[in-house]
Design a protein that fits this description.
Helix content: 25-40%
Number of helices: 8
CATH architecture of the largest domain: 3-Layer(aba) Sandwich
Strand order of the largest sheet: 2-1-3-4-5
CATH superfamily of the largest domain: Response regulator
Oligomer: single chain
Order of helices and strands: EHEHEHEHEHEEEEHEHHEE
Distance between the termini: 19 Å
Number of domains: 2
Number of strands: 12
Largest sheet: 5 strands, parallel
CATH class of the largest domain: Alpha Beta
Radius of gyration: 18 Å
Strand content: 15-25%
Length: 223
């Protein structure tokens, strides 16, 4: 999944980015509201995290502007303000959730999973993703097929999670690259195909029924 983090505190920005990348997210960052808003309009993100107190254009105004532009990406606001009126203002601006500083990383990750899950047609009530006999749990980062545990590395897990959020949809190489790799990632021209082959060896090759389908000239589909 690909996230946008708009936070002006450089140390917190870079620390959160590093922790989110460890969790398998691709992360782009901005340090002010105007730059963040421009990135949000140009790039398809799965979740946008916005600090309320950011320079040039505060988080509330950015959130309102994105909603007026018909952007439906889930938005999580971060703030040190914890009054009821502050929370009401944030949610009324179009934000989907509100997290008060200081917060634990575990809570941040849980809220991100919840936001992505709400927008996913493949999610079950317990937060698991299921396509056919393939099961993925974003919280525990476990993958099973036919009850058999499958070990994936961080990028393989992120790729499979993206497919399972969009079952039976054709995902182009460009769509996959934009969602799994951030702007500052160094990607070779065949990086998507390389990871598709790796993923296919683990989730399809040991099983008689193949789930990951190549749509020639277009992309790939998990069916």
């Amino acid at each position: 999944m690909r996230l946008l983090l708009i936070e002006d505190d450089y140390q917190l920005n870079q620390s959160l980015k590093a922790q989110l990348m460890k969790e398998g997210y691709a992360v782009d960052v901005a340090f002010d509201g105007e730059t963040g808003e421009d990135l949000a309009r140009l790039t398809p993100y799965d979740v946008i995290i916005i600090d309320v107190m950011i320079p040039k254009k505060d988080g509330i105004l950015v959130c309102r502007a994105l909603r007026r532009a018909k952007l439906t990406t889930p938005i999580l606001l971060l703030t040190a303000r914890d009054t009821i009126q502050d929370r009401v203002s944030g949610l009324d601006s179009g934000a989907d959730d509100y997290l008060i500083k200081p917060f634990s990383l575990h809570e941040l990750f849980a809220r991100l999973r919840a936001l992505v899950r709400r927008a996913s047609p493949g999610a079950q009530k317990m937060g698991q993703l299921c396509v056919g006999d393939l099961l993925l749990d974003p919280a525990t980062r476990e993958v099973e097929r036919c009850g058999q545990h499958i070990t994936l590395n961080t990028k393989e897990f992120a790729l499979l999670e993206y497919f399972m959020h969009h079952p039976n949809q054709v995902l182009t190489r460009e769509m996959i690259e934009k969602h799994i790799w951030s702007y500052d990632s160094l990607c070779t021209s065949n990086v998507v195909d390389v990871y598709i082959r790796r993923l296919r060896r683990k989730i399809d090759d040991p099983f008689p029924t193949k789930l990951l389908e190549t749509v020639h000239g277009v992309g790939y589909k998990l069916r």
